[in-house]
Amino acid sequence: MKRENREVMEGSHAVAHAVKNCSPDVIAAYPITPQTHIVEKLSQFVADGELKSEYLKVESEFSAMSACVGASATGTRTFTATSSQGLILMDEVLYNASGLRLPIVMVVANRAVGAPINIWNDHSDSMGVRDSGWIQLYAESNQEVLDMAIQSYKIAENDDVRLPAMVCMDGFILTHTYEPVSIPTKEEVSDFLPEFDPEHKLDPEDPKSFGTVGFPGDFMEFKYQQHEAMQNAKEVIPEVFKEYSEKMGREYNGLIEEYKTEDADVILISLGSVIGTLKDTVDDLRNEGEKVGLIKVRVFRPFPEKQLIDAIEGARAVGVLDKNISLGNKGALYSELLDSLYNSDITPLTINFIAGLGGRDIPESSAKKMYEKTKDVAERGYVEDEIKFVDLKEA
Amino acid sequence: MVNFAGIAEPGSTKNYKTGTWRTYRPVVDFDKCIGCAKCWEYCPEGCIIELEVDGKEVYETDLDYCKGCGICSEECPVGAIEMELEEED
Amino acid sequence: MALEEEEYFESGHRACAGCGLALGARLAMKATGEDAIATCSTGCLEVVSSPYPESSWEIPWIHSLFENSAALGSGIEAGLKAQGNDHTKVVAQGGDGGTVDIGIRSLSGMLERNHDVTYVCYDNEAYMNTGIQRSGSTPYDASTTTSPPGTESYGNENRKKDALEIAAAHGISYVASASIAFPSDLVDKVKKANEINGATYVQIHTPCPTGWGYEGKETIEIARLAVETGLWVLYGKKDGEIQNINKLNDRKPVEEYLKKQKRFKHLFKKEDGSKELEKIQNIADRNAEKFSLDK
């Protein structure tokens, strides 16, 4: 284990430091709460000469992503960050970036989507763009988000992947919270992350055309290639994690992380910073003799179908906590888990908890209620109330 | 399969002969042509070719690409280009 | 030949016969040369020039979306700068809809940040690629599929948006209007724009036989008449100073331009169409006054 030099700083600044050490050539950004501290810090790095990036203070998130597309197409490394409404304003460009196979890295400081307008955390924003062809990673802690930012470049720029990547960190809960973190030095990052030098780029020496019209005779094949790249990412991501773990001395073991699941009758599944609360809850319940485990979904796109099925096997009931809901249906993680289970050999009972929307706190007491409910489902042998809004106020 | 990200080679629409669209064919009278290149300047297809006929610089249409719009004929200052109906194959 | 012989926008593109836009692009690219990168907004130009696996472009070219050609250009310029490339030109292209309507935010941002990008707007005065719907650049009274004349309508009810003035208001050092009927002037203006280190804006009037309702062979004549009637004024604005206005010896009445196009046909048929023709003549007269067009 290498020596860790830890500093206490807020999550936004931690990720900004990590991004700085990845030496992005072009940064294009537009302010939105709770993402702003990231791009403010990067601005300061540029102003102080600590970071040699072209920094575009664009007039909208739409143009932030568009400028990243242009810059990335010239073969440079790019970065942006956004939240909520800003991410939605980018939506059209997100699909374009992935279709053009540009390995842009973006941090999303997760925030609810209005109306009513709300600046606090949930996952409605990033879950709403889960079909855009971006890799999506969800961070539990500030250490994880800064590590993921570095890992994301290596994943996105891999020749077998070549897709943009979104690192999701919970707004305020992570972005504005001070935690001790260890930031890899520029030298350590350079050793891990090679320079970006793509085969295809906008170059007068080799004047190719990008973004051509895909007719019905070819369009499916382009989408197949993107899907294939996502499948490749399922192999590439664990390799990148492994190399990172070896070089930086922090353990990243896979698309999902299992916590005390081995003999668990009841398993809770979620993603993002709430995993911290859920781990504490599991610890307490284990001390009380409950056979409960937890799965953290670190990578949501590509979806870790096989890993989840393997991890769930043996559990009688599974409770999925989603900080988002597809109105009229279910939470995103829950829906996709059900998809995966249908053709598997296992048939656990399942229940979906919708919690923490718009920044509503999820205390350990609520997490315990979720466990009790899931355990109840396991004992009864059927699900009565599949979609449960947690801590909903009485009328 | 298809190329990575739909990337295309430069100038490759030249593989597609738009001349098949044509109804009227421009026919240049080299005797009248004064080599002013107006037809070349105004051609939306960029399919006018410079050539030398009897020691004189003249212009002619590349029928592989000419769609027969007739701009060259309209704009020719000396009326050297006639549009003639293409014969059916 | 006065113009660059090399073609950077090649034959085989799928534009309609007599397309003014295709000629505009062909000429603008002659002014741009080979050491350049071009963007292109969604629209006719993009569709006719990039049917996968083919491309008409001899220089590196990228199409992303409808409304982000300028932002894309900003990013490309930044990417080149980051690589220490100080010679390759960036030309951002868009149609009138992609420029003056849906793309005006990203255009404004690019101009205000003064990127070293030449923005070229090909103005055919409506959304042609989607089937001739009205844009902010459609002239007064023009019939389009969304501004049809009828018992309650003379066609497009708004004046054409003055995107040149909007661009100039950003304080950029060069804006210019051009026309495909004046190729040398067009090429000179795009060249001048390219030579300037900073954002520049050139709007090229590109008549559209399909959308305006005339025969393809008349494209140049129509473009010329727009200039000769004073409805499309050729000028440049360098550092705020209006220069090289194309003065008119004998300004033609607007009817000469309008009557050749189906999109204005209703004005000559409707009972009180003459009142509308007068209004359009007023637009030309105001242009003449503003730019001292008449010799």
Report on this structure.
The complex is a heterotrimer of chains A (395), B (89) and C (295). With 395 residues, chain A is of the alpha/beta class. Chain A contains 13 helices and 16 strands. Chain A has helices at 11-21, 36-47, 61-73, 84-89, 91-99, 124-128, 142-156, 186-192, 216-248, 274-287, 305-312, 332-342, 364-380, and strands at 6-10, 26-29, 54-57, 78-82, 105-110, 135-138, 165-170, 178-182, 209-210, 256-259, 266-270, 292-297, 299-301, 317-322, 349-354, 387-389. The radius of gyration of chain A is 21 Å and the shape is globular. Chain A starts with 5 loop residues before the first strand and ends in a 6-residue tail after the last strand. The model of chain A has no long low-confidence stretch (mean pLDDT 97). Chain B has a two-stranded antiparallel sheet. The model of chain B has no long low-confidence stretch (mean pLDDT 96). Chain B has a domain at 30-89: Alpha-Beta Plaits. Chain B has 89 residues and is α+β, with helices and mostly antiparallel strands. The two termini of chain C are 29 Å apart. Chain C is 37% helix and 15% strand. Chain C has helices spanning 20-32, 44-49, 69-82, 96-101, 104-112, 163-168, 183-195, 209-212, 219-228, 254-258, 265-269, 273-291; strands at 36-40, 61-63, 89-95, 118-123, 149-150, 153-154, 174-179, 200-205, 236-238, 241-243. Chain C has a single domain, classed as Rossmann fold. At the A-C interface, strand 3, helix 3, helix 5 and strand 9 of A face strand 1, strand 2, helix 3 and helix 5 of C. Strand 9 (209-210) of chain A pairs parallel with strand 2 of chain C. Chain B: Its cofactor is [4Fe-4S] cluster.
Which key terms come to mind for this protein?
heterotrimer; A: 395 residues; alpha/beta; Rossmann fold; 2 domains; seven-stranded mixed beta sheet; 13 helices; 41% helix; globular; C: 295 residues; eight-stranded mixed beta sheet; two-stranded antiparallel sheet; 37% helix; 15% strand
